[in-house]
Design goal:
Thymidylate Synthase, Chain A; 208 residues; single chain; six-stranded mixed β-sheet; 6 strands; alpha/beta; globular; 27% strand; 7 helices
């Protein structure tokens, strides 16, 4: 497993994860991917920042995603279909999982949400990669743990961290807590074959 730790910067986490996966990940039998490995990320107190210039999704699209994941606004502008799925499965009534999390934290309990629905996802074209969230109050700070089955590190990881840190920030504000640790574990972090040349360019530039 690759372990990446950072104090605040989401961009630094993305670059480190890309570099370590390229250097130490295994070459899988699935010929869609050049590298694969399990990945764990810990950011002590994450700060939302403008995305790294090398990340392929535009800042405008990231801003739309970060707003949508907590508000559901402007769904037609969201470029990532999985983000739409995450929002609806977390926020939709009846039995909103986000409202459940808020209630649990207010009662000093652990809040848990899941996105996988077997009767839908086993046959679905779009299956959630982000599977679960665990949230708790740790001494006045909102601890947020995210678990994913898979993530393309080059063109998805930075966006995923941004959107779920946005959700962490939203929950912290709603619950009058500070933003605490953000933990993200990925069973199969990936670099796609189609992206390997641009990934090598990014890593080479980072070393210069």
């Amino acid at each position: 497993m690759i372990v990446i730790k950072e104090k605040e910067s989401i961009n630094k986490v993305w670059k480190k994860a890309l570099n370590e996966l390229y250097k130490t990940g295994f070459v899988p039998s699935d010929n869609r991917f050049a590298r694969m490995e399990s990945l764990a990320i810990e950011i002590e107190h994450p700060i939302l920042e403008r995305k790294d210039s090398k990340f392929p999704i535009t800042q405008e699209n990231i801003d739309i995603i970060n707003k949508f994941i907590i508000s559901g606004e402007c769904e037609e502008l969201v470029c990532h279909e999985w983000t739409k799925l995450y929002y609806h499965r977390l926020f939709d009534e009846p039995n909103s999982q986000i409202e459940y999390i808020k209630d649990r934290i207010r009662r000093n309990r652990t809040g848990i949400a899941t996105t996988w629905i077997k009767d839908v996802d086993q046959q679905g074209d779009i299956k959630p990669c982000m599977l679960s969230i665990i949230v708790m109050n740790q001494n006045g700070e909102l601890y947020f743990q995210l678990h994913a089955r898979a993530c393309n590190v080059y063109d998805k990881l930075l966006m995923n961290i941004q959107e779920f840190v946005s959700l962490q920030k939203y929950l912290a504000e709603e619950l009058n807590l500070k933003i605490g640790r953000f933990i993200f574990t990925i069973d199969f972090a990936q670099i796609a074959i189609k992206d390997i040349n641009v990934v090598e360019e990014i890593i080479t530039e980072s070393m210069e």
